[in-house]
Amino acid sequence: MQAQATTWDEYLRAVKMVEELRFGSVWTFDHLLPFSGPEDRACFETLTTLGAMAAVTTSARIGVLVNGALYRHPAVLAKAAAQVDQMSGGRLDFSLGAAWAEREFRAYGLEFPPLAERYGRLEEALQVTKLLWSQRRTNFRGRYYRLEDAPCEPKPLQQPHPPVTIGGSGLGSLRAAARHADRLNLIGPPEHCAERARRLEQLCAEEGRSFGEIELSVHPTVALGKDERSAQDLAERMAATLGARPQPGRWVVGTPEQVAQSLRRYMEVGVSHFVLAVTAPFEREPLRLFQDEVVPALEG
After folding, report:
1. Cα dihedral: 58, 220, 252, 221 (round 10)
2. Mean residue pLDDT across the chain
3. Measured between alpha carbons, how far is 286 from 288 in angstroms, rounded to an integer?
4. How far apart, in whole angstroms, are the C-alpha atoms of residue 101 and residue 31?
5. What whole-number distance in Å separates Cα of residue 54 and Cα of residue 28?
6. How far apart are CA 15 and CA 26, in angstroms?
7. Do 36 and 75 meet the contact criterion of CB atoms below 8 Å apart?
8. CB burial of residue 210 (10 Å; 0-12, 13-18, 19+)
9. How far apart are CA 186 and CA 173, in angstroms?
């Protein structure tokens, strides 16, 4: 479950509610501005938010969907992620993507290089992170990053390292996933996910890696109601908060039976992990309905 809120108290209540309802994980996102709608709405800093999530949860796994490789030097991110894994008792799902929200970089005067360089930085950042987590001292000389006799202590609790999720469907993201990922997260309809999965399988073969080692994940926005009218009403309220209309292929809206049918289509093309995007108003009933009726339908 991934949540977006307008106040910090609202966000923490949502995180606690997700865990109380027995969802397996709770996620934040990595942006400097809201990823849709007006730019002057609240947007919580990612790493401090992740640390707070570690402190207020006890069983749910926590993660970021996904950390952008351009926002921080990879050594800084690796250190922070290792600390959060320690704080959470080994519940971190690490993630990385090439970053895409150009308006944020423009607003804050940050460099936003062409796509080829962003993919190159993603690849090197993954190498740097894994080396820091596995070696006593790390030396690295890449095109974009250099480390000299660098330690990373304490290391993550999870060994050999926290699970790594790569987010993105471009060729550079898929190639990085084939080399480094435990999970690939995609956004889009089942047909898109199936096509990207086939391409990932080809890249895994080129890398000499088993495609079966990588879990496929998808990230739809879900508006669920006991009937179609209540589902549509919730979708309208969520869209108003986001400042964006529901997008076909990215939103799943309907009754428990309809939502289960939509998610089952993803499962038929190999997806086995879902991160459901929700936003204010955080209403318990739709989430409880998902656990009580959608999950058993998918497991049956």
Report:
1. 70
2. 94
3. 5
4. 8
5. 12
6. 7
7. no
8. exposed
9. 10
As a whole number of angstroms, the distance between CA 231 and CA 222 comes to: 9
**pLDDT tens per residue, range 165-204:** 999 999 999 999 999 999 999 999 999 999 999 999 999 9
**Sign of the alpha-carbon torsion through 43, 164, 25, 223:** positive
pTM over the 0.90 mark: yes
Look up residue 279 and give its two tokens. 């936003």
Residues 6+ apart with CB under 8 A from 18: 1, 3, 26, 60, 287
d(Cα 296, Cα 277) in Å, to the nearest integer? 20
Rg (Cα) of the chain, in Å, rounded?
19
Give the tens place of pLDDT for each residue, 151-175.
999 999 999 999 999 999 999 999 9
Q: Burial level of 84, CB count in 10 A (0-12/13-18/19+)?
A: buried
Q: Token pair 């709405």 is at which residue?
A: 41
Q: Cα–Cα distance between 261 and 275 in angstroms, integer?
A: 16
Domains contained in the chain, CATH given: 2-299 (3.20.20.30)
Q: Which two tokens stand for residue 37?
A: 């709608």
Kindly state the tokens that stand for 12: 């923490």
Please name the residue that has the structure tokens 């996620």. 27
